[in-house]
Amino acid sequence: MANQTDVQNTSASVSDESCCSKKPTRLQLSCFFGTLLFAVAGISILAFLMLKIVPDFEKIFVDFDMDLPVMTHIVIAAANLFAWVWWCLLLLVPLVLWLFIKGRTFPAIVLNLLSLLFGIISVVVILIGIVVFISVFMPLIVSIAELST
């Protein structure tokens, strides 16, 4: 009977150590850095869309005096707001660099939670990018279709 409790205690301590080990595995590190890079790339692409593409299309819409859907007006307003506060993203640069430098020393559980967080941020940023792309290009496609008929 004592052997069974020893085995159970040993297996419980092994599972606790593997779940919350001090040193993360290579797989955990690669997942963390992969999702961090994916989030940074997504935010960079969204910033390019909001700072360069949307204002150019706004000029086209104004030049052609087009009636725009509400969603496109919302995206243009968001891009104008983003043009005001884009520099706030620069405040994230030291945080990202710190995560790259100190990420190897985080406990595995913290690394897993950060990977999950960056994965969620990446998905949200990609969805926002798709909405921006569709709401900016759709009025242009519709107007071209109307001109061809």
What does it look like?
This protein has 149 residues and is mainly α. It has one domain (22-148). It contains five helices and no strands. Helix 2 crosses helix 3 (70-85) and helix 2 packs parallel to helix 5. The chain is elongated and about 65 Å long.
Number of domains: 1
Sheet of most strands? none
| Uncertain regions spanning at least 5 consecutive residues | 10-16
Which oligomeric form is depicted? single chain
Features of the shown structure:
mainly alpha, 5 helices, 149 residues
Give a short synopsis of this structure.
This protein has helices at 2-19, 26-63, 70-85, 92-102, 108-148. The protein has 5 helices and no strands.
Which helices and strands occur, and which strands form pairs?
Layout: H1 2-19, H2 26-63, H3 70-85, H4 92-102, H5 108-148
Helix pairs in contact: 2-3, 2-5, 3-5
